[in-house]
Design brief:
- The protein has 349 residues and is of the alpha/beta class.
- The protein folds into two domains: 57 residues, no CATH class; 244 residues, Aldolase class I (TIM Barrel, Alpha-Beta Barrel), CATH 3.20.20.
- 28% of the residues lie in helices and 18% in strands.
- It contains eleven helices and twelve strands.
- The strands form two sheets. The chain has a nine-stranded mixed sheet.
- Helix 6 packs parallel to helix 8.
- The site of iron/sulfur cluster has 10 residues, from loops.
- Keywords: 4Fe-4S, Iron, Iron-sulfur, Isomerase, Metal-binding, Pyridoxal phosphate, S-adenosyl-L-methionine.
- InterPro entries: Aldolase_TIM, Lys_aminomutase-rel, Lys_aminomutase/Glu_NH3_mut, rSAM, rSAM_sf.
- Its EC number is 5.4.3.2.
- Belongs to the radical SAM superfamily. KamA family.
Length: 349
């Protein structure tokens, strides 16, 4: 395969040895419906000899995506229900999403915004829409944090990112700017001096939330890109999606969370997979997810524990799904330790 360009069509995937000839017709139908892109870094990471490769599973289209189940929905976490102006999602009082762009360097097959991103998606905000989005943020003094997402905001040029940061820097009540991105992993070469400089501006604290789902994604190049960000003073946190066939086992999850911490990235959210169309082959039950997360307690350092969450369908926000450590009955608390032992609190003696 040509390692220097992204793979964007079924024919390119076949040429790169990622789609078998007999699968090509089905994959072409999937690609007409949902965007396809595999960056050179991810394309070269895929083990062609492993039919269950967890990197391929995240990025190579699959005919399973044509199966839509009744509970799936085009806007699974209800962005549109909370969008007062184009490009803004205001779901919680003190923060907004700013979706400036709906393009990504890779297209994840489980994406919760798969109906919005890609060449046929919502596109990039026009200058007029950007003006309205910034006016909305300026008019709402309760907005303390702006979260740039999309799409992947780090596909924007340093010049565009600088413009965005300069406009946010003029809004006093915004203190935190958070970038949700896959770029440090899937296109690490993009994290250069100019891009890092663009993320920073005086008076605002920049956070980068890295989306990665398997420890192999933290390649030496990705680790170096994250180090450049952290060394510059940017705080990094992680977000991952719990995905069947990618990270649904305790060893993989533990290795992923440890890799984050080793790279100065604080594990933040582990998302239960959303009800995005054509993604049922990725979904676990909540019970399976809770058992996996319970298995991390005690086994790995407290620094490595993510918060397991569900985005409640319809836009009602996030709910923590973590294991219940405490039960209350008859005025008495019973707490469980990480081995499953139960203890009354306060102790009777
Ligand atoms: S990078 Fe994020 S927004 Fe883009 S396809 Fe993947 S999950 Fe969706």
């Amino acid at each position: 395969m040509n390692d220097l360009r992204p793979l964007r069509t079924p024919a390119e995937l076949a040429e790169a040895g990622l789609v078998a000839p007999e699968e090509l017709a089905g994959i072409e139908v999937v690609a007409e419906r949902y965007a396809v892109a595999i960056s050179p870094a991810m394309g070269s990471l895929i083990d062609r000899n492993d039919p269950n490769d967890p990197i391929a599973r995240q990025f190579v289209p699959n005919e399973g995506e044509l199966t839509i189940t009744p509970e799936e929905r085009a806007d699974p976490i209800g962005d549109l229900a909370h969008s007062p102006v184009e490009g803004i999602v205001h779901r919680y009082p003190d923060r907004v999403l700013l979706k400036a762009v709906h393009v990504c360097p890779v297209y994840c097959r489980f994406c919760f915004r798969r109906e919005m991103v890609g060449p046929q998606g919502l596109g990039t905000l026009s200058p007029e829409a950007m003006d309205k989005a910034f006016a909305y943020i300026a008019d709402h003094p309760e907005i303390w944090e702006v979260i740039l997402t999309g799409g992947d905001p780090l596909v924007l040029s340093p010049r565009r990112l600088t413009e965005i940061m300069q406009r946010l820097s003029a809004i006093d009540h915004v203190k935190i700017v958070r970038f949700h991105t896959r770029v440090p992993v899937v296109e690490p070469e993009r994290i250069d001096e100019a891009l890092i400089a663009a993320l920073k501006c005086s008076g605002k604290t920049a956070y980068v939330a890295l989306h990665a789902n398997h420890p192999r994604e933290l390649t030496p190049d990705a680790r170096a890109a994250c180090a450049r960000l952290v060394d510059s003073g940017i705080v990094m946190i992680s977000q991952s999606v719990l995905l069947r066939g990618v990270n649904d086992d305790p060893d993989t999850l533990a290795a992923l969370m440890r890799a984050f911490v080793e790279n100065r990235i604080k594990p933040y959210y582990l998302h239960h997979p959303d009800l995005a169309p054509g993604t049922s082959h990725f979904r676990l039950s909540i019970e399976e997810g809770r058992a996996l997360v319970a298995g991390l307690r005690g086994r790995i350092s407290g620094l490595c524990q993510p918060t397991y969450i569900l985005d409640i369908p319809g836009g009602h926000g996030k709910a923590v799904l973590g294991p219940d450590a405490i039960r209350v009955s008859g005025g008495c608390h019973t707490v469980s330790d990480f081995r499953g032992g139960e203890h009354v609190y306060p102790p009777s003696e």
